[in-house]
Amino acid sequence: MKGRIAIITGGSGDIGTATCQEFSRQGARVIAVDLLAQDQGVLWQKKQKAAGFDFGFVHVDVSDFASCAAMAKEVESHFGPVDIIVNGAGTLSDASLRKMTPEQWNKVVHTDLDSLFNVTRQFINGMIERHYGRIINISSVNAEKGQFGQTNYASAKAGVYGFTKSLAQEVARHGITVNAISPGYVESRMVMTVPEEIREKIIAQIPLGRLAKPEEIAWGIACLASERSGFITGSNLAVNGGLHM
Fold it and tell me: Which end of the chain has a smaller Cβ tally under 10 Å, C or N?
C-alpha cells in the first residue's frame, strides 16, 4: 500500500483505529473520516500521534450525501486522490420488529447501508479515470445468519453484499476491486458494555472460544486492500471464529 491514499469511515472506532494503524504500517497515507466533532477528532489524532501514527481526520456524516461530498472535496484538496475506501461506519439500534420505531429503522439503514452510496459515489469516477481502486465494505456475521432484535441492522448489513457484488461487476474492467468483510463478535468498547454473563454465552457459541481482536479484523481488511489482492473482487471474507460457516 506504499504511497496509496486511504479513507476509513468510522476511523476512530475500535476496528477503524486498528485498520488505520495497519494501513499506516503498510505504507498508506490514512485519513479517518468520522462523525466525531472536529475537536474530538483532533484529540484522537494526538493520541494516535503519541503512539507513532500520523493520520488525517475529516468530520463527516456518512448518512448525508452533501456532507460526504464536502468531505471528499476536503480530502482530495488536502491529501490527494483517494485509492482505497473502507466503508466501516456503522451503528446499532436494537429492538424486536414489533417494538421497533421508524426512527430506529432509518437510523441504522441510513448509516450502515446508505453510507456506502454516499461515500463511494464521491470517489468512484476518479478511481475509474486512474484505473485503480480498492473498496472494502464492512458487513457482519449477523447479515449472514440473522439475529434476534436486529432486523434493521441485519437487513442493512445484508444489503452490503448486494452493493459489493454489483459494483464489483461495474468497475472490474477499470482495475478496481470491491469486496466485503464480515466480522463476528469483536473485543470492542461496544461489546464490552454487554453484561458479562451475556458475553460468556456469546463466546460459548464461538468455536474458537473467544472474541476477535480489532487487529485481526484490520488485518483482513488490509489484505483485501493490498495491491497483491487484484484478482479478488465481489467476495466476502468471513472473520467470525467459526460462529457461522
Answer: C
